Amino acid sequence: MQDGKRNQIVHYLLNIGIIILLFLGAFFGTRPPHVTISENYIKISGFYGVELRMEDIEQLEIRESLPRIVTRTNGLDWFGIAKRGIYELEELGRTRLIDNVYFSR
Known about the structure:
Oligomer: single chain
Largest sheet: 4 strands, antiparallel
Low-confidence stretches: none
Distance between the termini: 58 Å
Mean pLDDT: 83
């Protein structure tokens, strides 16, 4: 096989691999988080999920809307469909945000 043809095949395979990784990231990144509550902990699964011990929770509240996002420090935002990661929120400061489930430490 010629070197040019071999390089072209490697290039195509690399592109296909990148497309597959992007598809998998979008698929798993936009799946809704699964929340498990037990006597000892709350676990939120998925990208940027977390497990919190009940004894570490100081305050819990329900809000009608998300505070304004100042910046995304580390995480992903799939075109507004799924926001997950570490964000800076106006009222809460540095916060882990998982879709509409968010909490501060």
